[in-house]
Amino acid sequence: MRPRTTTLLGILVAGAAMLLGGQLVTPAGQAAPGEIPAPARPDARPDIVLVLMDDFSLELLATMPNAQQMAAEGAVYDNAFVIDSLCCPSRAALLTGQTPHQTGVLTNTPNDLDHPIGGYRAFAANGNAERQFSVALQDNGYTTGFVGKFLNGYETGNAGGRVLLPPKVPGWSTWNAILGGGYNGWGYKSTYLDEAGDVQLQNHPKPPRDSSVADLDRAYATNVTSRKAVQFLEEAEVGDAPYFLEIATYGPHSQLQRAYPDSPQFPSAFADRAPAGDPTGGSCGTRPCGALTLADLVGYDDPRDDNAPTYLHGGRTEPAPAWRTNDISLTGEQALTRYRDRARMVQSIDRLLAKVREAAGPDTYVFLTSDNGFHLGQHQLNGGKGTPYDSDSRVPLVVVGPDVVPGSRHQFVNNIDLAPTFEELAGLRPKRFRSGRSFAETLRSAGAPGARYAFFEHTYAKSQPGEVDTDEGSGGTIDIIPSYVAVRGERGLLVRFDLDSSWQGTEHAWELYRYDVPWEDTNVFAEDHDEPWVRDLRRRLELYDGCAPAECRAAAR
């Protein structure tokens, strides 16, 4: 590991103006006139790693021993949320520090190829690639790497029987994107950049099912991601430039197609699987798999009769039609099986985390989070995500690194806050078009000022071919969730749904949940909508709706 001054204070000092007390001050490492120049110091800016999981629900964190060790050593944000609890809009927002209404990435699929509203097509069409935080870091001397899942729809094409390679994405020195076959765990392709900097493909064939466990798991997507990440770190550690690495796992998202006939809906590495006929066996990390119960899923099977939204006409309220109309098809046995399989699935991610931390060393900031949460029977919504509720919108956020003071943080953080935080840690002033707020100061001071509110937005769109979250295991109810804008504070969650599914019309109705209970059990908007704290939430929601970057930041204060 190369020597490096990595304190935030050191970064600020190194980049400070050279005037002090009216006298010219020679920058550190630079000789004064007439002196022999000293050897150049290594770049003082810190290395940064982001580990981004997929569909990770918060109860799984307790099963991961290395993640628990990381939490004991670092900062744990207990009010960390995502701007939209759906994969592609959330990832686009994280990469740009902008809201979905600013990125134009509203869904997972284009919906309209000429005017895409989702997936990689919308990301590229709206100029988001150039606004990634990685571009700012790379332009300022960082070596940047990406390994794993990028955005839905970033795939190969076909023209007259000829395979078209996926496009090069700016801002990344190393580009190891694993394409959509990674959802299934085995049998997929990944990208790399050749010596000319052009995108090329690497094939990762699926081993025969009767291969050894070691051979099967060597080809498992999470393990391949781990090896590529460690390779990047080992090469970057001996270089002079600081680095940023994003590691985006496919786990614990469900498979789209079975890689093998006996693959469970959430396919873990074979080393972690339960033996045939023993549903309580296998590896669930810190706990026996049999000790995981539906009681861990807070709010599981909570009746939804008292969750219907409420109209507000002037000062008068009246009931609005319920939108949670899905058949309750997920049985308790299925929910428990999938919960345990997901716990088995994250064990390979936990081992990845240990290898990454070892390769990166203690002077590297390591962030652990997810693109969204996941419900498995909470709200009687079967399995999936996309709602503003705690199961879907709250994610883990754990950070270790130099100057990080261990302990809990209660400030509100949204995933649009990551981009400006990475920029500030790298010694840059966050771009003015970022709608998020840097929380870098809270890493070294748990009580530092921070946001007091988090916002959410989601756009309803009829699922189109290529939508990855309509399968029963990973979604199944995404089509019934209306568009909404929401705000969450310490006391509660306020959601304004649009019950009109057309693009032109609106039919607003409200849900309000107090957090004197640990989940969204009863809509109390009719009783509490005129309370001062609720009026404050409504004012902030109106400020956020369609906000420009500075307005978005102000609304969260």
Automatic annotation (TrEMBL):
Domain of life of the native organism: Bacteria
InterPro entries: Alkaline_phosphatase_core_sf (IPR017850), Sulfatase_CS (IPR024607), Sulfatase_N (IPR000917)
Keyword terms, alphabetized: Glycoprotein, Hydrolase, Signal
Keyword Hydrolase on entry: yes
Gene Ontology molecular function: any one: hydrolase activity
Sequence ranges assigned to domain Sulfatase N-terminal in this UniProt record: 46-427
Pfam families xrefs: Sulfatase
Family membership: Belongs to the sulfatase family.
Protein name, entry field: Sulfatase N-terminal domain-containing protein
Lineage: Bacteria, Bacillati, Actinomycetota, Actinomycetes, Propionibacteriales
